[in-house]
Records
---
Amino acid sequence: MKKNTAWNDLLVEGEVAHAEPAASYRAGCFCGAVEVEVSGKPVFAGYCHCADCQAWSAAPINAFSLWKADSVRVTKGESEIGTFSKTEHSDRKFCKRCGGHIMTAHPRMRLIDVYANLLKGYTHEPTLHANYASKMVSVRDGLPKYRDLPADLGGSGEMLQD
Ligand SMILES: [Zn+2]
Ligand SMILES: [Zn+2]
């Protein structure tokens, strides 16, 4: 798979539109040059404790919300978006002006992680902690803690203690 996939290549065919108007939320980079809009609901949301998220976010935990690729739209500053792909599974999108992170596309899953912290008006409703084996901090919130990922997402499904 080629690296630095163009944004439009990540978009998949739209599904049949729902009857109800979908809620939408905007996320912007640190300087405001780039904005994206998501609509509907994330496929799922949670926290990731993996080493890559820790390094990329410069934070111990990444609050992720995974959206279908076709429900994420760049509304401002598309030409300011830089992409870094450490592996072919993650195309990390950032603002070339301010360096602020915006989202990470996962082409294999056809999902896009729009960082939950950035979505205005959105209520983060996490259901799990992923990659808890490499946690830097413990979170005693009662949510399931996966060593890596749930089995239906390609992980071992193994659970760890808080
Ligand atoms: Zn910016
Ligand atoms: Zn991660």
---
Amino acid sequence: MAALPENQHTTAHAIVRWYESKTQDHRPHMGASIIGHPCSRYVWLTWRWARTPQFPGRVLRLFDTGKREEERLLEELRGIGAQVWDTNPETGDQWRVVACKGHFGGSLDGVAKGLPEAPKSPAVLEFKTHSAKSFADLLSKKVQSSKPQHYDQMQVYMGLMEIDRALYIAVNKDTDDLYVEWVHFDREHFENLLDYAQGLIEMPTPPDRISADPANWQCKGCTHWDLCHGGIAAEANCRTCCHASPVENGAWHCDHHSKKIDDATQRKGCGDHLLIPALTPYAQAIDGGASWVAYKHRDTGQVFVNGKEAVEGYGQAFTSKELQHCPADLLANAAELKEVFPGAEVISGGLKQMEWNTPEDLDKVSKPATKRDKVQRAKIAESLRNLERLAS
Ligand code: SF4
Ligand code: SF4
């Protein structure tokens, strides 16, 4: 008997969907927790909000498990008699550290004193949960070698808190075994990390890809795969706009509107958004003006403009929002649609699906159809069929 499709109306599915319904958003700062990521492009793209993370519900639930484990470990440390501060007593808020003019930093799990191995010394606390395989690797290699990203995170926290040691507690999710390691401050390593973060913050364009292979193990599960390997542009928000730059105190400035842009504005962007050319990796920038950039598609040779209006000789214009939703493969179809149906625009989508104004809507916005239009519309019908095929 053929296997029955999995029932989508179960309690388990509902829970997973509940996690997925929560907003997955960007962090304002470059996080100490990712500075040790092996791909510097990942660190830059994440900080510049190139693609919003879209973790499946199961993974979001795993993150939640990690957060809950932190509470438990804090309670257990208190239970063995340590003094534990999970918030800063001066502010009552979570411990936060910042550097690089406010653009780099992170939040600590806590600070503790009175721990059995060093009763008089304060220590930064860092808690992580691990799969059995990862836990075994940690036991055999220790944190610096097994989990360099965690090691770097602790070096940043120790350096910015001016505390010379950290207590790393790892939990094996399969068995609840604990692994505890004392990590000591390494000033040179810390300063190198700060220089590296500052260098990334000052870069107006992203570093190169870690690999050109879409199946590279680092790239396969990466939030930015669609951008680096999938032929789609970055999302349109102020962080991906060539008019924005980071300034003092963790703030951002828009050169186009000559003003500082607050967090809410940055997330929305505006109609004058112009993509940083490197964030349309499938095309080469060939010309530009104050409010537009012309591109040539690297595979097809198609020319197009990122901007609000077409520029003579450079094909159809696409706003940054449209490029965010229109895969490179479909750009030629999109240009044809725009030619025949002025006012038509890509309104949502991505690599796996895309939505258009319907042809009926398009008829309404179009100028009256000429004979040439009608011929072209037959071609467009074919394009739409292609779009539907690719979207399904
Ligand atoms: S997809 Fe690969 S190259 Fe791109 S940011 Fe992720 S890890 Fe780096
Ligand atoms: S032009 Fe608009 S999208 Fe670009 S930085 Fe300024 S406010 Fe943001």
